[in-house]
Amino acid sequence: MRLPQTKTTIALLTACVLAGTACSKAETGLGSESADAITGKAKAAAAGTGAVHVQGVWKIQTQQFRIDLRLKRDGGVGTVVTADSTIELLRIGQDLYVRGDARLYQGRDGRGGADVEQSAQALRDKFVKVPASDPSYARLSGFTRMQDMITDLIRLNGKLKKDGREKVRGVETLKVVADRGRGGELRVALTGTPYPLKYIPSPSGGALELFEYDQDFPLVLPHADEVLDYGTLTDGKDPSGKPTGKPTEKPGGPVPGTD
Questions:
Q1: pTM of the predicted model as reported, rounded to 2 decimal places
Q2: End-to-end CA, the chain
């Protein structure tokens, strides 16, 4: 049987070859939707998850934070590494525990004084239960709050546009960019639940990957002999030696736990 070969058919096939792409059906499913709709579905999916693993580098101005956190609705656990120290965080319900080396509790300018130095030596490598009334509680616990980290954090500023596809941890994603990337980028899972799998806040803002959605994990209290209450040692001062009294700011501005 001979297939009809019209001038239109030949022209179409020629165009496909010259373009270097295969002629295929129009995009369907999530890929056929607008960039705004895709972003909205990704944020809704993230807000509805029961757990997530967040990992990557977060840069704000001259500060860089390497984050590895597992989060769920009633707490979180993981580490935040800065140029100054490594901070282990554990929150179970409203109870927040912090563990770090001596540098975490010293003033950055090295002028903490004898009392601060003594406290730093006593607190290093111990889990410190931070009272909710302490100014550092709100800043540090922000890292362990899933709503803050994946809902308030993911912000795209500017006109949204789809920008092709990319594999993230082996999963095909749709790329959404804001203001040609200057306002942030998001990678959204193309199949299954449209979870955000990668977030780039700005061209120089690092990148965070989000994975292991809805995979539960245990939150285990440290042994009693591993826990100290730094309030009795620092007289209520901020454990990093910074002045207290600064209002808390959400992610998207300064990182929780930092100036």
A1: 0.76
A2: 76
